[in-house]
Each structure stands twice: as structure tokens, then as C-alpha cells.
Amino acid sequence: MSGEKFKAISVADFFYKNREIAGFDNPVRATYTIVRELVENALDACEQYSILPDVRVKLIDEGNSIYRLKVEDNGIGVPYEQIPYAFGQILFGSKYTLRQSRGIFGLGGKMAVLYGQITAHSNVKVISSQGGYEKYMFELSINIQENKPIIKKKEVRPNPGRWRGTIVEIKFEGDYIRAKPKIIEYFRQTSIILPYANILFIDPDGVLYRFDRITTVMPKPPQEIKPHPHGIDIEMINRMINSSRSSTLLDFLVNNFHRVGVATALSFLKSVKIDPEMNPRDLKPEDIVKLVNKMKVYDKFRPPDPDCLSCIGPELFKAGIIREFNPEFVTVTQRKPSAYSGHPFIVEAAIAYGGRIPIVPPDEILVYRYANKIPLLYDLHNDVTMKVIKKINWKRYKIDLANMPLAFFVHICSTKIPYKTVGKEYIADRPEVEYEIEWALKTCARNLRIYLSKKEKINIAHRRYSIIEKYLPIISQFTTELANENTQPNYEKILKRLQIHAKESEQRSIIQVN
Amino acid sequence: MSGEKFKAISVADFFYKNREIAGFDNPVRATYTIVRELVENALDACEQYSILPDVRVKLIDEGNSIYRLKVEDNGIGVPYEQIPYAFGQILFGSKYTLRQSRGIFGLGGKMAVLYGQITAHSNVKVISSQGGYEKYMFELSINIQENKPIIKKKEVRPNPGRWRGTIVEIKFEGDYIRAKPKIIEYFRQTSIILPYANILFIDPDGVLYRFDRITTVMPKPPQEIKPHPHGIDIEMINRMINSSRSSTLLDFLVNNFHRVGVATALSFLKSVKIDPEMNPRDLKPEDIVKLVNKMKVYDKFRPPDPDCLSCIGPELFKAGIIREFNPEFVTVTQRKPSAYSGHPFIVEAAIAYGGRIPIVPPDEILVYRYANKIPLLYDLHNDVTMKVIKKINWKRYKIDLANMPLAFFVHICSTKIPYKTVGKEYIADRPEVEYEIEWALKTCARNLRIYLSKKEKINIAHRRYSIIEKYLPIISQFTTELANENTQPNYEKILKRLQIHAKESEQRSIIQVN
Asked: Of the four, A150, A238, A458, B49, which is 20 to 30 A from A473 by CA?
């Protein structure tokens, strides 16, 4: 009987061995995932710095199932010395802060590099500049066993045009033909939520997909924030104590937590019976457990400030939807900020009706889901949004899911989206999130009901008008003849008045609800 | 405009920040996951070494939502110097080989330790011995930022009884009341697939759940194997070349690959036009790409040997099902080994009918899914098994899912189960796997149809016999009276013969199909 053979593996090795977890199941899925991860990094590099995104994506078929993907952005750029790590070391990145961003795992871009390496023996080629006099070119691969970048080639080049941005190029084994519907859908849905972005995609057949910005208004970029006391755990508080210079607990709470002022801190410490003058380093492990448990449930902390969030906002959301569907009616709601376990989040929802929206087969519902502006294309049926849509009694809103041309849109933005998987496929059903989605959709549903009933009233008015229009002349003629008169009464005036009235009420209705 | 703040985080930090990915969403789910992960490690420590498992699990409510879990096994034990790493460093373990085991990620046990630490500030307490004169006690926690074990306490104790095994104790924040149904179900389903294991669970209310072994027969433990050429990628072959001493490609292939002999290697190299005498270290990157691509598709490699797999086998599977359901009929099929992308796998399936199996409400189906002997309790509707059950035309087998007391069982064992998530929740629908599950269930369905139609025939025979039994005496009496005789014919003999005949055919039928 021999013992077990023990060994440690690197995190790169872990994700190499379990790449299906990050969305690299097979060539089809990998093609989609690589495009998505690189486009998201490109968009984040722009939006986080209020740069209007110009993203160009080109996918080239090199034969034998090998593709070359090139993604170029006009974002902030990556500093020279960080490039090897930002593209060649897993779990190295700029996204480990409390701020909303698309990427949260510091994983996707590097998984794309890794996948290219193991399927096509390719290096990633990166060109980047922050707008200075130089731009930098690297060719990199990953030492998977040690999770370290290997620099194959590097060059410093002059940058006379002061170009700023990043170009990434990767070769990999893929299958564009089967991945195509998802990829096009990804771009289409991205353009809906980003009406201020220019996105260009040239596919391997040379077909050009262009999504031009229709506005230069951008939502304000998200701010970085301190942790909220409701979202704390023991590990976090220990780290904060170790890196803090505060000599009293009162100071420590006020300096390190989101929206905790002196008064709040004092009344909290009083409620847990801990001396505010105590040095946080003197807290015993059992005190820390007590402190954390009380923090999580103490209900007088102010709710998290949504300043760290960057919603799309009703106007931009509506513009994106109108560009795509040109609907007869669209209503958008933004909920007030809420929080789950200390993570602030905001839900935005929309319902659009008519226009280019098709009537889908029964059992299907047209749902567009977004999380931190990322469209979610897989696993709709596990998502909390679907759960909510199935729960709502649509008949109450006179909405017939099976026979009306409807599209639903739900966007949740948060410092931490409760994803169920690394592949960012669907959102777990946290009760707080579920509640907000439900009420956002119900508000939209109410607006749609008002529109539909106004429309119905207008229809009735129109029908009434056309009946009157048809018979009034005849009645007028009859009565004139019966009365043995020669001139008919001036019914034209009545008709005109009725027509104006119908039109006015139509306009009033639409202005009111749309 | 400031630049991005870049930093690297440890893998422990990654999983700490994204613990929902590993099944630690909330206290309810975490309670279930911790129990499961530790029980699985305990079972693996026994079964991999042909030790009949004795696993005792005790969960104690310590108040304030804090629980203490103690899991004891009689397995192989952990060597003294490995204990800190095996429990305090994520991605350190004994399971990174090509061999079937429950754990594949080297993650679950450590995530339990990490979760205990961040929710209850607890250390993990480990006592282990490999059966020598000493046993070892450690109290550990994890330095999450550096992914290193912190030894809080260690002791070497005498082991006069030469006890062998491991005891793990963790405190954590949980919710047993809401996790209870899943936990009990987990133990019940585990006992079905492990009829040779003693499992004891004492819950926080002091209720004792006992699953005693009913056999001492165990399946043979899985063997470690070399990689199959169909499952190769560029990274793997580069690593193999770096660690190989072979000076020719022929030697290299024969020594490093599963089921590749000299003849196979030669004909493969001929087909790709590479010189067998070439030194593998002289292969250029483009040669390696070519070699790997050809290896993946070359169809003359022998299929993987299932010796590395440890199925439960029809006899043991049936025994487990009978113990749990005492069904009227049960049929088990084991398919021949198959493979997907170079990973061998075997599907075993069973259908049981009657006995203690309830008739479930329509729309529900009683399905027990296992992967490498782990019961899968979540996300049934995403699992490939459910897809197959919905696809099969059960009417062809005279099986009525809605009105018959039926239970379905599917077990897949493989060196690499195609899980979709780290939480080991459900199996991706690889076509090869889907095919095997479909045919396994169809074979079972055919057997069940045969049984049901035999049963129907027996019923007819019985009904016929009882009619004859009732009327033969009357007919006999009538005919005797009509013939003016005094003594009736000896119809008793005829009845007895018919009865014997009916019974015999009944026994024959059951022996034949059961």
C-alpha cells in the first residue's frame, strides 16, 4: 500500500486543466468566449476613463480550423512594465477593486492567451501606448506550470501620432461557422446597451458589421469605494486591521468603511458594547467574530452609495432599444439603488412593444439580459430574470406574452454581480435582486398597460369617427330631404371638430406614457 | 487621467472572492457543500486503496448559526509533512493524475477550511495516521493572501492501537435546518451506490442516520494511466517532451502514451510523414501543432483502456438499489467503455419498478444521477441524463412515466467527468456521453418491457385459473347430474396441474429477466 503522491499546481495549470469552467469547452464555445473576453477588456479600457469607445474586431480564417483575432481599442493603454503580466499571468489585473467593471476575475483575457497557446501554439501579440512618444510591442506566452509570462519578443517603437490604445492579436483553434450566430448576437446586444460606442466587426468571410454611435453622451464612470459594513467578513476585517494606521476602533471604522461617520460608528460600537477607544489590533479572535456578525445585521448603517456604479440610464437605454427595434412603444425604469450583503446594485428594465419586434413562438420569450453592460447569452432558463418573468401575472397588465410582439430588457449593475459561474452565464437568485427585477418589470408593465389601453381608446375614437364620417352625410341628406329643404346643415364642421379631438387625445396619450 | 492599478492575487484569494463558484453561495448551500466535500475526501482515502470505508460524520450546533463538523475515516491517512499543505493550500493535492477519483479540483476540502475561517474564525483540526506508531494533530488556517498554510498548533501523539485514518474538524457559519433535506438525500443516495460502505451521520438534533454495509465486495480501485493520444494538446506534449529521456520520436510515443505500441506508433508517424528516428526535442513549433492535430483525429489508435476506471458493477449497483427501494423489479446495464476526447468513460444505468418507489406527480421523474460515485443533487434539468430521458420514446417500451412507480439511475465514471461547474453540479452534454446514456437506458427499458409483459401473461394465466377453479366444480356437478352418474370426474387433478403450470411459468419469467 503506497501513499498518495502530493503536489502543488499553479492557478494557470488549474484553469488549463479545467478550462470548460471559464467557457472554453470546445472550439465553438471558445471562439465566442475569446471574442467576448477581448471585446470586454477593450470596452473597459475606454469606459472606465470616460473615453468614447472605438473598438475594431477582425477575425481571420487561417485554414485548418485556426483563426486569428485582432481587437483594437482607443482605451487608456497598458503601462510598458505591466504588459507581460496583464497578458501572461493569470490572476494579475487591475480589476480587484470595489468598482463596477465588466471583468471581475482577471481571468478571461489570459484564458484566451492560454487557449491560443495550447491549441495553435501561438503567442499573443500586444501593441499598446498610453498616448506618449512611444508605443510598445510584446509577443508573449504563458509558462503554465509556473503561471508566469514568457517574453518572446519586445520592441519600443516611436509613436509620432500620440496614438493611445491597445491592440491584441491571438491565434487559436476555433469554429466560426457554428459560433457565428452567438457572436453576431453578442455584438448586436452589446450595441443596444452601448449606444455611445463605435463597434466594428469584420468576420472571416469579409462581412462587415458596423454599430455606429448615435450619441456622444456617456454614463459617468464608476468610482472606487470602501467596503460596506454589511458585506464584511472575518478575512476582510483582519486585512483591514493589519494595513490600518488607526489606533482606535472609532477611527478605524470611520476611515475604512463606506458611509460610516463618527455618529454611526459610535452608536454601532455602543450597541455591541465595545470600547471605541480600543486599539483594533487588540481585538481577540472571538471579538472579531462578534464584531463581524453584528456589523452584518446592524440596521442603522446607511445603504451603500451607488456612485461606484455606472448604469446606462433610461435615456441611453431607450436610444439603444429604439435604434435596434424601432418599437411602437418602449418604457424604461431605473430602480433606486439597493444592496445585497453590502454590495450595492441597481436594476434597470425595459419593455418594448411592436416595431421590428417579432411575435415569438409560444413557450418562448424575447429576453435581453445584461450584467454590468455585458449581454448574457447562455442559460436564460436558470437566470433570475426568467424566474421573475414566469412569476409575474401578466394578465393583470393586459399583456399577452404569447400573442404580442414584446421584448424584455433587464440590466443589473453592481460592484459584484452574483454570477453562478466563472463563464459569466447567469445570475443567481438573490432575494434582493429578484425583488428589484420584479418591481422594475412591473413598473414597465404598468406603463405598457396604460399605453395599450390609451391605444385601445384611440382606436375606439377612430372607429367612432369613421362611422360618423360615413353616415353623417347620409343622415344629413335624409333629414334635409325629409324637411324639404335644399341646403344641408354644415356637418363638415362637426366632423372636423371630432377629428381634431381624436388626434389631440392620441398625442396626449403618447406623450404621457412614452 | 490616471493609469490602472495592477496587482496579482493568490488563487486562495481568487476563490475567497468568488466562493459561490465552488458552491459556497450562502449558509444553506455552504453547509451542504462542506459536508459533501469532506465525506468525499474520506471515501476517496478508503476506496483508492481497497479499504472498506467506515465514515462517521457528526454535525454539532454551537449556537448563533455556528456549526462544528467532524468527519472521521479509516482511509490511508495523510503523511505528517503533507498535512499542512493538504488542508491549508489551495491547488495542492494528490488528485492531479489520470485516474478516477471523486475530487478532481484539489479545492473542495480547502474551500471548506477557508469558509470556516472567514465565517467563524475557526482553524481546521486534523488528526491523521498512516497506521504507524504515531499519530499527528494539527490546527491550521490558510494565509489567504499568500495561499499558504498557517500552523497554529501541532502535536505528535503515540498511536498504540495502530489506528489508521483521518479526522477533520471544522467550525463554520451554516444553516442545517434548511440544508437538512439535501444533506440527508446526499447520504441516502451515496449509500445506494456504495453498498460496501458503513456511513454514520449524527445530525445536530442527535438523530442518527446509519447506512450499514450489506456486502464486503468492493470494485477494484482505479489505476493511473498515461494520456491517450486523442486527448492531447500542445501544452501537454511540450511538457512530455521536456521531461522525457527518449531520443527518438518512436520511443517517445511508445513510452508516454496510453495503448500506443511500436506498430501503431510507426504507422501513425508514417501517416503524418515525420521521421520516427527524429529527436522529439528537435520538433519545431509548427511540427508540434501538426503532430497534435493529427493525433487527435487519427482513427487507428486503440481506444482507452477502462482499467483506470472503477465502476460500481451491476451486482453491487443492484444490491444498493434493492436495499433502498426493495423494488418488484430492477434491471442494471453496464455499457462497454467509450471515450470522449481521449478520456475513457463507462456508463452504468438501472431502472427499478415498484416496491417502495412512489408514483411521483406528473412532470416529475425520479432520477438518481452519479458521477464517479458522487450523487448529483442540483440542476437536474440541465443534466444530459434528463435530456436523454426526455428524448426516449417510452411508449415503445410500454412504459408510462406518469403512472408507473419508476426510478432511473445513471452512473458515469471517467478520468475526467465533463462537469460544467466547479460545484460539480451537472454534466455537459458531450455527444459520446449522451449516446452511451441513451443506449444504457434503452437496454434497461427493454428488460423492463419484457418483465411487464411476462407479468401481464402471468396475470392472465392467474385470472384464467381462478375462473376455471370457480366453474369447473359446477360444470362437473352439472355434467355428472345430466349423465345421471353419482361420482364426479376427478377435476382436482386438472386444477392442480394448471396451478403448477402457472407457478412454473411465473418463476421462469422472473428468473429470466431479473
From this structure: A458
